[in-house]
Write a structure and sequence with these properties.
The chain is of the alpha/beta class and 266 residues long. The chain has one domain: Aldolase class I (TIM Barrel, Alpha-Beta Barrel). 48% of the residues lie in helices and 15% in strands. Strands 1-2-3-4-5-6-7-8 form an eight-stranded parallel β-barrel, surrounded by eight helices. Helix 7 runs antiparallel to helix 8.
Length: 266
């Protein structure tokens, strides 16, 4: 089954909203690690709306699992990354007015800007991922840029799947997968297959929760699922360790791909 990366940014968001020093995202990360998280993911935004610079270095010192830093193509953040030396960086798009990341990075349209930066990270021994939509041109750009990983944007699928569930609740019946949801899921599945054929290591994330994650976790070849908001929201009610264990259980129960041989080795 895919490994789980737990994003702790929304813990920092709660802290910043209260202008206090709690809850502590590092304590949350350690609790997630003890509960079985395979990685900790953190996004330092240019506007510093949640995670702060000092959080990065406290995380680096505290956690023992894979540290994945999300970042925009911004020189100040890039320089901090070279001081931090995470195991992996994932380039994401970033707009000041957005509530959260909206859509994938246009790697195809940013190759000239991305290429020298990616080369620097690879020279430093840091794995490079690109957060992209499941589109052939973006996969081809990731290969051309020398990315190690891609993280497929699952937000479109997640929103459609959640809408299917909401409709079912309103009607008092079982959720039915709409054609649009099935098409979005097929696009992700196809992109995973193509990525592997191109030599990329596919991850996935955005908008995934305890209800919609199963079909994504069942796709053969996905290595990591990076999930934040749903786990932090659940942790508010039951605590971080239980929230992480529950998510790993849901991922583990996802049906195996047909034939049983499609799983990527890790």
């Amino acid at each position: 089954m895919p490994k789980l990366g737990v994003k702790v940014d929304h813990v920092a968001l709660l802290r910043q909203a209260g202008r206090v020093d709690y809850p502590d995202p590092i304590a949350a990360a350690l609790a997630a690690e003890r509960a079985g998280a395979d990685a900790i993911t953190v996004h330092l935004r240019e506007d510093r709306r949640h995670t702060q610079d000092y959080d990065l270095f406290r995380l680096r010192e505290a956690v023992h699992v894979h540290l994945n830093q999300e970042l925009a193509l911004a020189e100040q953040i890039i320089e901090l990354s070279f001081r931090l030396m995470p195991e992996e960086v994932c380039f994401v798009p970033e707009r000041p007015e957005e509530l959260t990341t909206e859509g994938g990075l246009d790697a195809a349209g940013m190759q000239d800007r991305l290429a020298p930066v990616i080369a620097r990270f690879k020279d430093a021994g840091i794995g490079v991922s690109l957060f992209i939509d499941p589109e052939p041109k973006q996969l081809e750009a990731a290969v051309a840029l020398g990315a190690d990983f891609i993280e497929l944007h699952t937000g479109t699928y997640a929103n459609l799947a959640d809408h299917d569930v909401a409709l079912a609740h309103g009607r008092g019946g079982r959720p039915q997968v709409s054609e649009a949801t099935a098409a979005a899921l097929a696009a992700i599945s196809g992109a995973v297959k193509s990525a592997r054929q191109l030599g990329l290591k596919p991850n996935a994330g955005h908008g995934l929760n305890y209800i919609n994650v199963g079909p994504i976790a069942a796709i053969a070849g996905i290595r990591w699922l990076h999930i934040g908001h749903a786990i932090v929201a659940r942790a508010v009610m039951v605590g971080m360790p239980r929230a992480v264990r529950e998510m790993k259980a849901v991922i583990g129960k996802a049906p195996a791909p047909k034939g049983g041989r499609g799983r990527a080795r890790r």
